[in-house]
């Protein structure tokens, strides 16, 4: 099967990435990537990782007329959105690619597809008026479209996302920030989905609520590039404050999020009974009523009651360091830790359900969840041990490694691995030669290391131990 | 890469020698590409190997590609993608399970031979030796695979299996087409 251009090169060029940049995303030396693009040997796993960077499957590389890769537009939009984009992408490309791949898998597996976001009737919106005012107006419009009272809190953002058909994925690595520099990412294509960074030090529940509302803004408003092209994929960097279009989108999404979760009329109604709306009690009431953090509560009071004036933060700082109240627990907002990871969340749930009911095969389930044939599928959805257990044993792997070695030495189909003995250094494998009509004949032994490399000469005169 | 499927069955010929399955399958695939190819010519060109049978390496060199002896989920991706592009895929399989499929499909061994491996269903499922080569010709989504086996006469072929059976019981290697420019 030949292509006029190697598919990896095509993907790279469509994404307007140079060899060095893509190589750095993939953790490969530029020379190695160049060699692959020129048709050199590449392990299937390497090609799979490269495809994943673009949100593609390995099998997509064979398509005669492939769709543009989902990540390409993000990469390509860097000039329009802000020059720092490649920096974030470099740190996160593999995980963002996996996220997009999971969304595509989920979409393929789902039997129904309806875009509840479309039904809200909020049109995509380009940078125009003041970002904060625009975000505020669109939040009010969205609340109305959702049928929410102008003063009512939103009890659960997770449930709201479910209602809107937004698939939620999350990463929660304990030892390192799973998405350095990013709060979240989202895509509208091929179905709405959000990837949350639930790094424990940065993601208390109130921040997750705001992040979800912020990403909802992107999903509703920002699925086009500033020049009007489709942008199905966006990232939300931490605290970006500059004048690029991406910064405008971020400011507008922040305003949208604050006004969606703590609407102005709701903030006013909550503070109305208080003598001092800048008091600690006022802040406590806002945090407890609307499920926002202290910082957002202070900002909301300032924005709603003192627009354009000295911020409430400064007023409070002038009083000295106020006693900080404890944040309440908030029901229905904990993202289950077992749902975190990629592939995880809604994809994992759906795959396991289908697999349990035998609607998809064991191999398909493993392929969708990236579980190797030699590994157990993690428990969930009532799968039996028989459904979860590995399809290949360590001994199968030893036999397979032996075959690989034999065939590389040009020993044909007659040759195979017989009895295996585990040794302190690895494995002793008894070789067999089987010909039609005769019982298998012993052909000596070879030693394999723990890493399944050949650790002794082949006892085969004809092979002469000269394999590749 | 073709947009239409070849007439696979017309390309099938019984293998000439008991251990020349790789050559027979290579010739079959070359015929499917519209080339005039005979198993005997390949055997002559390749010569004898020590102990019998050929490695997929030989076939890969002739077909353009590389032999891959990692029968994992990536292998399945490659195989499915190639079949979707109407490319046949030469695979090396365990003799027992492929014999079980042949028996279930009532295939008749060609040239007066016996079955490749005999035994009960359980024995066949667990018998690797001797290894054998066959050609996957078609993927019927989501997971049915059609194949041709040169050990048997054409009648009753192609016959089918599933991706689960292929990966769990049969597959040991395949010829992967390169994505070269």
Please describe the topology of this protein.
The complex is a heterodimer of chains A (468) and B (181).
Chain A: H1 7-14, H2 19-26, H3 30-37, H4 44-53, H5 70-76, H6 78-81, H7 85-109, H8 116-119, H9 131-145, H10 157-163, E1 167-171, E2 182-187, E3 193-197, H11 205-221, E4 233-237, H12 245-261, H13 264-271, H14 280-290, H15 294-305, H16 312-318, H17 345-356, H18 362-369, H19 385-388, H20 394-408, E5 415-422, E6 426-433, E7 441-449
Parallel strand pairs in A: 1-3
Antiparallel strand pairs in A: 2-3, 2-4, 5-6, 6-7
Chain B: H1 8-11, H2 21-32, H3 39-46, H4 56-63, E1 66-68, H5 73-84, E2 89-93, H6 95-104, H7 121-125, E3 132-140, E4 144-148, E5 159-162, H8 163-170, E6 171-176
Antiparallel strand pairs in B: 1-6, 2-3, 2-6, 3-4, 4-5
Helix pairs in contact in B: 2-3, 2-4
Provide a concise account of the structure shown.
The complex is a heterodimer of chains A (468) and B (181). Chain A is of the alpha+beta class and 468 residues long.
CATH class of chain B equals Alpha Beta
Number of helices of chain B: 8
Tell how many strands the DSSP assignment of chain A holds.
7
**Percent of residues in helices of chain A:** 40-55%
CATH topology name of chain B, in short, is Cathepsin B, Chain A
Task: Give the overall shape of chain A.
Answer: elongated
Identify the strand order in the major beta sheet of chain B: 1-6-2-3-4-5
Strand content of chain A: 5-15%
Structural class of chain B: alpha+beta
Beta-strand level of the residues of chain B, as a percent range?
15-25%
The structural domain count of chain A equals 4
Overall CATH architecture of chain B: Alpha-Beta Complex
Number of domains of chain B: 1
Low-confidence stretches of chain A: 464-468
Oligomer: heterodimer
CATH superfamily annotation of chain B: Cysteine proteinases
Alpha carbon gap, first and last residue of chain B: 13 Å
User: Biggest interface: chains and residue counts?
Assistant: A-B, 62 and 62 residues
Poorly predicted parts of chain B: none
C-alpha end-to-end distance of chain A: 24 Å
